Amino acid sequence: MSIDKMTSFEEILYDVTDRIASITLNRPDKLNAWTGRMDQEVRAAIASAEADEDVRVIVLTGAGRGFCAGADMSLLSSLAASTDGLPKDAEAALGHHTSGPLKAGVRPDFQRKYSYFPSLSKPVIAAINGHAVGLGLILTLYCDLRFASSDARFGTAFARRGLIAEYGMAWMLPRLVGPSNALDILLSARIFDADEALSMGLVNRVLPAETFMDGVRAYAKDLATQVSPRSMAVIKGQVYNAMFQTLEEATVAAEQAMIDSLKSEDFKEGVAHFIEKRAPSFTGR
What we know:
- With 285 residues, this protein is α/β, with parallel strands linked by helices.
- Helix content is 42%, strand content 16%.
- Strand 1 and strand 2 (12-17) form a beta hairpin.
- The longest helix is centred in the first third of the chain and has 16 residues, at 36-51.
């Protein structure tokens, strides 16, 4: 699925402005509950943003009052009623698989159904404007940064539906909030607010609801205009790969990455714009 820089699909909106790709889940009457179609459209938008040299930052958010209220209840109902395995629409929305052939040089861990955001070269910001529950919460875990509106609410719901910690959540969540907080969130499946999410380290910051997207875009624009895209891509890879490395392995990798960065155009520009007291003009090379 190829897309233009400003496109409205059936279930998402996609727009590129100021080098920021905005992906908006667009089923506001359903609190942006997740469907197989939405999954496909988000993947297409992500692929377009990753390939677009004009895009430096990706923002994922929801239309209306919710970010994403989890899997569509009609889908869950069909699963509960099924006696012959997963229906095809359920397989498309919830299937445990990769998005295609494995990409060379990328850990298989970051090529699963919803864990592919860390494999992207560009930072992904979750702009959590409202409820992020179940699968909606999982989506935010795989984003690089999480900004929450003061109106945002969080929860897993899984234990209250007879389900489990899905899609690697039991691995990712404790790395953000610690094992004790993760068990509280998962076992109780309770709803909690943005301030508690901030105190646990689940979100990076909480912004006033009235000016929420303005605040998110201001941060994203700063990344898009003031920071080397090459540096962001390398640093992002370092952080996620370090989750699987010893300190020695991470240090050795950083030494080589440092040598490579000293040969880059962005390093030369980074020094030049500072000395010349002007705005940077990074190329990403």
